Every structure is written in structure tokens, then in C-alpha cells.
Automatic annotation (TrEMBL):
Cofactor note: Binds 2 Mn(2+) ions per subunit in a binuclear metal center.
Function comment: Hydrolyzes the pyrophosphate bond of UDP-2,3-diacylglucosamine to yield 2,3-diacylglucosamine 1-phosphate (lipid X) and UMP by catalyzing the attack of water at the alpha-P atom. Involved in the biosynthesis of lipid A, a phosphorylated glycolipid that anchors the lipopolysaccharide to the outer membrane of the cell.
Designated name of the protein: UDP-2,3-diacylglucosamine hydrolase
Binding of substrate, residues: 79-80, 122, 160, 164, 200
Membrane topology: Peripheral membrane protein
UniProt-annotated binding residues for Mn(2+) 2: 41, 79, 114, 200
Subcellular compartments: Cell inner membrane
Sequence ranges assigned to domain Calcineurin-like phosphoesterase in this UniProt record: 1-204
Pathway: Glycolipid biosynthesis; lipid IV(A) biosynthesis; lipid IV(A) from (3R)-3-hydroxytetradecanoyl-[acyl-carrier-protein] and UDP-N-acetyl-alpha-D-glucosamine: step 4/6
Cofactor: Mn(2+)
First-tier enzyme category under EC: hydrolase
Catalysed reactions, semicolon-separated: UDP-2-N,3-O-bis[(3R)-3-hydroxytetradecanoyl]-alpha-D-glucosamine + H2O = 2-N,3-O-bis[(3R)-3-hydroxytetradecanoyl]-alpha-D-glucosaminyl 1-phosphate + UMP + 2 H(+)
Amino acid sequence: MTTLFISDLHLDAERPHITELFGRFLDAEARGADALYILGDLFEAWIGDDDPSATATFVADRLRVVADGGTPVWFMHGNRDFLVGQAFADRAGMAILPDPTVVDLYGKPVLLMHGDTLCTDDVAYQQFRAQTRDPVWQAQFLAQPLAARIAFAKQAREASKAHQSGLASQGTMETITDVAPAAVAAAFQQFGVETLIHGHTHRPAVHALDVDGRPRERIVLGDWYEQGSVLRVDSQGHRLEALA
Ligand code: OKV
Ligand code: MN
């Protein structure tokens, strides 16, 4: 039996083949797994559960089949889809996990995060994050008409693109910054775990490191821009692999 971890699919109507790849992955693999963990950025953008998007409906329907088949589906917010709410989670049959969360994986405690909170050098992004994770901000945002929320997502997308193409000062926003080693060490210390799994940076890898004289492992999930990326864990170990 296997537990599956994915993140950073960035599903969007503009990349239908990735949504289809995700659907095939759910049918071929997630159905029958011990559990499916989605560690954030399932969607490229999310402006409220009332957004009538065909991609969202497809994803909810297909995830629901997995959950109804007896495979628990766990979802953690990413920096793009932090506004996914309980209404959408219910439609998809998934449960929302707080970031960070420690889960028991075949007898071993494992720390799960999206990964954006580890990018502490990205001061502008952390400010945006603090503001937009505030429940008062979220309630006010979600009370706005759909058109105003769409405009915000467009602005955020443009701000993100501008930073990525180096127009603005280097080292801010999303994928440009990698995790800060001190933040990684602090997370291992705070939770006392040997293993951390996260996404966000789009730098898939298994890193061995040492914190306080103890060997630790940081597993970084890959994005689904060109192909899929999945971490399969069972009682024997783990494999981080691409999915075409
Ligand atoms: C987060 C979303 C990108 C949603 C934007 C002011 C502006 C900072 C920013 C910080 C976050 C982008 C730039 C990101 C969410 C997207 C695209 C769609 C919610 C502003 C200051 F423009 F809104 F005023 N940010 N990043 N989206 O993490 O990449 O739908 S981001
Ligand atoms: Mn992210």
C-alpha cells in the first residue's frame, strides 16, 4: 500500500492537458492508495469557491470519486489557492490540513508544509502572505463581487510574472527564492521530526542534512508545468518520480 504526495499542479483552463494528466493519475493510481496528500497550489488561481470554473468542477468531481472509493484526500493551501474554502473541499470530498501539519506515515512522524513559509528571504511575499491569510482580510475579499476578485487575481499574476522575468528587484515573489536554510532548520527543531515534505519551490529533490547532530531528510515535490511529479511512500521507503 502506498501514500501519494503531490503539489504545485497549478491547474488552469489554459493548460487542459495537465488537468487531463491529473485525472488519469487519480484513476490509475490514487484510487486504491492509502491516502492522497495535495500540498498546495493545486490551482493556478483561486478567488472563491463561488467561481464557476469548469476546471474546478472537473477536479472536484474526480477527487470525489477517489474519496468515495475509500482513499482519504488531504489538501493543504498553497500561495495560489489559499482561498480554497470548506464548500469546495466538501464538493471534492477532501479535508483541509493546516500548514504545517505532522502526520504519521507507516509509524514515522513526517512534517508537511506547502513550503512558502520557508522562503523567509522573500520579505515582500511574506508581507503579502500575512495580509492575505488574515481571516478579516479574507472575509472582506470574499464579500467583493466576482469581477473585483478576478481583477485582483490578474494583478497578482502580473506582479508575479514581472518579478519572475526580473523586471523588479531580484529575490522576491514565488518561485525565484529558494528556502532559507535557517527556516528549514527551525522547522525540524520545532517539530522534532526526521522528515519534511513540501512543495512550492519547483525544485524537486531529496536533500539529506543534519540538524542538531541528527540526520534529517527534506523532500521537495516538483511542479506539474511540463509533466507530473509524485512522491510515493510505503513502509519500505519513498520514490520521487516524474509522471508523463
Ligand atoms: C498569489 C495569486 C499569484 C490568486 C500582488 C501586491 C497585487 C504582492 C502581490 C504576492 C503573491 C504574486 C504577487 C500569487 C495568488 C497569484 C495569481 C492568482 C489568488 C499584489 C503585492 F498585485 F495584488 F496588488 N503578489 N504572488 N492568484 O504568490 O505569486 O488567484 S503569488
Ligand atoms: Mn506555491
